[in-house]
Amino acid sequence: MNFDFSDDLKQLRDQARRFMTERCTPAVVRRSLDGQETYAADLWREIAEMGWIGAAIPEEFGGAGLGYEGLCVLAEEMGRAVAPVPFGSTAYLAAESILTAGSDAQRHEYLPKLADGSLIGCLALSEGSGNPEPSAIHARVVGGRLTGAKWPVADGGIADIAVVVAIDEHRQIGLFVADLAGVRRRDLQTLDPTRNHARLDFDATPVQRLASGGGWGSVQRVLDRAAILFAFEQVGGADACLQMAREYAQERFAFGRPIGSFQAIKHKLADMYVALELARSNAYYGAWALGADATDLALAAATARVSATEAFHLASKENIQTHGGVGFTWAVDCHLFYRRSKQLGLGIGSAPFWKNRLVDLLETRNVA
Amino acid sequence: MNFDFSDDLKQLRDQARRFMTERCTPAVVRRSLDGQETYAADLWREIAEMGWIGAAIPEEFGGAGLGYEGLCVLAEEMGRAVAPVPFGSTAYLAAESILTAGSDAQRHEYLPKLADGSLIGCLALSEGSGNPEPSAIHARVVGGRLTGAKWPVADGGIADIAVVVAIDEHRQIGLFVADLAGVRRRDLQTLDPTRNHARLDFDATPVQRLASGGGWGSVQRVLDRAAILFAFEQVGGADACLQMAREYAQERFAFGRPIGSFQAIKHKLADMYVALELARSNAYYGAWALGADATDLALAAATARVSATEAFHLASKENIQTHGGVGFTWAVDCHLFYRRSKQLGLGIGSAPFWKNRLVDLLETRNVA
Amino acid sequence: MDFNDTKEEAAFRADARAFLTANAERRAGARPVLRQSGVDAEAVKRCKAWQAKKAEAGFAGLTWPKAFGGREASPILQVIYNQEEDAFVVPRGLYEIGLGMCIPTMMAYANPEQLDRYVKPALRGEEVWCQLFSEPAGGSDLAALRTKAERDGDDWVINGQKIWTSGAHLSDFGIIVVRTDPNKPKHEGLTFFFLDMKSPGIDIRPIHQMSGARHFNEVFFTDVRVPDTQRLGAVGQGWKVSLTTLMNERLAVGDVQRPEVDDLVELARKVRIDGKPAIQNGAVREKIAEWHARSQGLKFTRFRTITALSKGETPGPENSIHKLVNASKLQDIASYGLDLMGAGGLVVDDDLAEAYAMFQSALLSSPSSRIAGGSDEILRNIIAERVLGMPSDIRVDKGKPFNQVPTGKR
Amino acid sequence: MDFNDTKEEAAFRADARAFLTANAERRAGARPVLRQSGVDAEAVKRCKAWQAKKAEAGFAGLTWPKAFGGREASPILQVIYNQEEDAFVVPRGLYEIGLGMCIPTMMAYANPEQLDRYVKPALRGEEVWCQLFSEPAGGSDLAALRTKAERDGDDWVINGQKIWTSGAHLSDFGIIVVRTDPNKPKHEGLTFFFLDMKSPGIDIRPIHQMSGARHFNEVFFTDVRVPDTQRLGAVGQGWKVSLTTLMNERLAVGDVQRPEVDDLVELARKVRIDGKPAIQNGAVREKIAEWHARSQGLKFTRFRTITALSKGETPGPENSIHKLVNASKLQDIASYGLDLMGAGGLVVDDDLAEAYAMFQSALLSSPSSRIAGGSDEILRNIIAERVLGMPSDIRVDKGKPFNQVPTGKR
Question: Is D403 within the bounds of a domain?
């Protein structure tokens, strides 16, 4: 058994961490926070040039062919840096949808452009409040034309194409690709301004159906796979919070001693660490399952997602608490993680959704 | 507003506390724990002589007519002392059932004897696993004769009469009184040997129906009222645990200082205290609602029950934790409370049952 | 137990209600009153007008001595007035600290001429007061303050920085505790003053919070002169005076924060899980039940406190329970409400957000609730030490000259 | 990442499985193996026979030097053997401490003749060892031990009391740490020995736990003589030697404790809520999901540790996570399972109790899991200090002569 990333991938991780530390500084993130830019376009270009967007896309479709473990390693670093770029929307959602559900022609049409950064992708699933479920899908495709409102769509305001979940003439769920040029969009204000979110109003927009993207199962499959990659982003974010809290607790004094010498703070950090390590281990198993296309991929995904959501939520809120008063100021970076934690935690279905799914899968497994 | 017990009742409480401290020592409790006696019969006789069993029973039925606040005050002291007597079964369940659902004749027949201790009562509701619900009742009364198995029945092995929940010829739920002389019984081993529990096998046992004891509503009404009294016992038990933990934390040293000076212990005790105070306040409101027969009695009961169950569970397990190694020995008294916490917590429906009921009632209230 | 008013209480309640009905608008609808961004110029006007009206009618400073414009009423009447006022829309946020903490401290330490000069204008809302205690290096260790005052003739000269001062930019006067002898142990070298917030050398900068709010300030002092006559208490007795102020803080009861449990029930009727209203889901129900039990427990704990107050007892640090439980509950309810909304929970646009965006708003404001005015950790310490009698934490700075106590990089 | 065995590992796994198949019975059915009441005389015989067989076949002491009967195998082979053994019913509970902690300490400190005399008999199960560290006054403060040894000629004379000694009544030998100089600070006045448990003056009394178990003992020492040749390490170096022993404790991995999440799933299919299987209830589902995520997280954390081991890295105190998470999870699952059973959950009679009464049994045994071998609080401290680099707690006893350190009434 070898339950660790290869040395090559560890090198990739170190390289990504160095790069992000240097190029994706808090100042860069704050440009999006303060509304000076919608996303970090320069950073995005550099990320594209390094081939990271297409890390898991096979070389024949213009990707780097590093496999899913490579994409996982990169996802963790995106999370650690609170990167204000459409990495997840493009790589985990749009590209993955097309890769797993598209025809060969569709793959050749879109994947190379997603991989090289010339197209930004997104997934248009939600139609307002509520977790993903088939009965909440009302957007409809008739005669190859899509009509309906999707919101919020992460990166929907900056994406070139969207993979849209909609019902067809036969009231069947399908995955459709839409070119967003000409689609009416409106940027939304959200809890996390460092990621673009938009409302897309489709009005007889021409779309093409992803070849095998039929039924809710195909949507769930996209969400399952994305959940593992989201989990790595969440683990990266949680780790960053723990490191911030550690440093602060060592350097900040109260009553003549570092606050990290008080058990209230020590035990808080220990709890953050425990949640993080459990989440990391579950994410690792998810990475393996994704790479191996394991039979229990869906259960591994739900498990990783549940752990990672909990770990990042805990770490981001208790990092603020550890910082005390400065922790809830705009000027200190704690809230960037707290916001992102909720953005990632709600984005592809929130904790209750994934807990329920986890038990669905457990029930199936135990019966089988 | 005056949200506190009257001076008279505070005197009764002090008197009860002194009496129980003196007569219901751990040594007495341990006689039941070790199986030397089924319950503390001598103590029970004294309690009866003081008129406590009939505290809330009107004087016309042989009670002390102190009202429900009086019974609440006594319940707290029973909990504090982990009393190995059938107080709850007799006073909160059997007597209350007959008082609220019996005819005048039935009240006159049973209440004076329950009040003066010449009859021990119990409620026979459960038929094995699962929380109370109408579909789980299979015991049946046909032609005034009851057949079916009830277990566990708290104090069923020592009771003279049982109020039994059963279905009648028309498959309607009813409350029936059975004389237990001649009924086949078997004492059960349970988590809390300081309270008797039995299995009762009725086989065409003659019973009389409580006059207005029809439908599940009448059962729920008995449980609601009992829940408030159980809550006071639980508050008493939780308070005792907190006091034990406090004393131990002040007297036990580690690393040259009292363990109560470590924040891990301080904050644990603070959390116990907070849970206890919330539970106490909710129980007080329940006492008022019971005395005033308030329209929101049921919601007050569910709320008090949920808080009190949580507070006693937390206090009893963290009292052990505060004690460290000796805490989990047979010789130290911590486990008496831990066992009783579960006994009281499961007895008339466990936390999930009452949480669900609480929300049922909230929904009704908000609609109304 | 009895939830009814006494005759006197009922009469007072009727008076208060009549006053409010005549002068304010009854609260209607479910939209919560949020105080995200503090009090703007318009709001200041409304606050001042309302306070003047209230003082005129004798509903301000109810428990204060008659000589200062109060009624010398029992605290229970204050509770009754607050209960009644809660049903009306009245402007808030400008006087709580001045009337709740600063003026009571003045009443304990200032001389008769000063009280004559300052108390009534404060009660009528003509002058606004703020409290200058916290410092960047202090945090939970409130007494570890470094702002210093040096004697110069009849004056003291203050240099340093205060932080977390609510309403400093709107205030006419402030109370301040400063270090006058750094060679003494932490609590012994402090002295207490009141000062004119328009004094030269005071620079006030708002703090931008993560929630968007800006009601706290940093206040910088450069050679600010305060006459020795404005000293409250003896030189070196500043900590003792501060405790008087802080004792009053604990008596002040915060606003009800939204979303409350009922808001979650409302939301759970609306959003759906598996095609059915979320309120039918067992997990949602358990959480609602647990929070309801906690809310009610707090409500009835406050009733017990009020009862104690009305019997002339002083409520103890048991009150710390309230903030400790409420702040985390608020954060948890906010987060869970968003979870029920799924991705839609991210949106805060007015026209699209669920429930007036109060869940999102609380997610961002609740972290400050868990810290400001005593962090969760400090409150647990207070409960453990002052209620349960646990020993205090080991104090490595005890008895050490303040300037020799170790400090960190932050 | 790769979950497959290497060629060498696969070959070893096949060997182990062949050995087990030939000599033990495959585990069948769901009834959990509970070790409530320790090891009785019959079980001792079975344990001894099995250990002899295992040693004979070369599956005992896998990682030990060949000179001592081991294979000098990589730790990963030990993991593989354990995985295989888990599928079989084999007697356990007698040798874990001796082979896991005592003999490794001997190997680090005893002389060649002693090793020659003691190691192989221990490996073959002919002699049983126990560990005598904890004392009544110590608790989490392990080094605060008071049992004293005084030099008398070539011997030391031990007086005092140890506690929580697993299997003392079944043991032939023991390792012990005692205070030889109470005038030195706590950690400096200790010395370490091994001794014959049949020595005159040793009195062993079982401790009755709340769960009914009796596998721990109190051990009283009255003028027990131990030759100086049985000292391990220098005089005053006892704490250092103890750390060697304790380091090995952390490497030992506990049994899987039941009920696990799958047991709860099973129960939730069976018991009913509102007439439907409990597993359909949202609240039950959320709890199952959360505990499943935690169980899996622990399982895969162990996989990461095994990977580190097999690369020759030493696993750190990260392992503390395992007990910290598991003990509370066990208590919570037990309690929740009972909640689902309602009043019926109280019953432990064999013929009536749900799920072999394992939930009830765990309710009573889990409190000791949260304490024995490092309490939750100590484990959090270890993680905070050794993994996260937080400063240690303030030590008021630091550097003080042990006999001047304050002690309490308990």
Answer: no
